[in-house]
Amino acid sequence: DRRALPAPDLNLHAQAYVAPRTPLQIQLAAIWQAVLQVEKVGLEDHFFERGGHSLLATQVISRARHALNLEVPLRALFEQPTLHAFADVCAALQVSTEQPLVALERDQPLALSFAQERQWFLWQLAPASAAYHVPTALHLRGQLDIAALEHAFQALVQRHEPLRTTFVEQGEQTLQVIHPALAVTIERQRVDVAAIEQAVAEEIQRPFDLRSGPLMWVKLLE
Q: 31 Cβ partners below 8 Å, 6+ apart?
């Protein structure tokens, strides 16, 4: 008999109120209060006992990122669900995020990112696979300045390092080599109108070689 049930009391599981003390604790308490829609949150309060759940937990993480510039993993709130413990985790992250990022010189091979390691592993399993290709086909009409088009793609490659990166194996380790420049030459091919779709489909399946590059190419079908 749902109508006979009392209204939910979100303060039922509240611990004896211990006021937040540090600026970070106060800021996090305000975030919890807004997300949980309760009047106040103390240091010993348990997020999930105060009405929190996984969807609200993601809101807490998102608000901490935007309001406090903290990259807190979602699991931290599940592992440390009291405000005091969660604030301690955030305080440690706050210290680490204050360390400045230092750009590494590009005149040496660098370690792969996690995404690159995954891509390298998959490419070795199936080097001819087109599963991770990102193709784009544009239908252009009228006079085309091919030199200007090449210049535009050259600027794109020059701006984005991943497009001029290749992979090299040194012993048991794979590294990335970011080239200072990489020429973009537009290939040209005359095709009958009826064969254009087939030609595009063939280009989409054309494999890349992560060791020699390039990791982007352009072909003009006339």
A: 60, 63, 64, 67
Secondary structure class of 167 (helix, strand, coil): strand
pTM above 0.90, yes or no: no
Q: Whose structure tokens read 């985790």?
A: 89
User: By three-state DSSP, how is residue 26 classified?
Assistant: helix
Q: Which 3 state secondary structure label does DSSP give 57?
A: helix
- Report how far residue 49's alpha carbon sits from residue 10's, in angstroms, rounded to the nearest whole number: 8
3-state secondary structure of 125: helix
Q: 184 with 137: CB under 8 angstroms?
A: no
Q: How far from 104 is each of 95, 113, 118, 160, 178, CA to CA, in Å?
A: 22, 14, 22, 16, 11
pLDDT tens track for 124-174: 999 999 999 999 999 999 999 999 999 999 999 999 999 999 999 998 899
Instruction: Classify 128 as helix, strand or coil.
Output: coil
d(CA 97, CA 192): 57
59, 32 Cβ separation under 8 angstroms: no
Q: Alpha-carbon distance 184 to 180, whole Å? A: 13
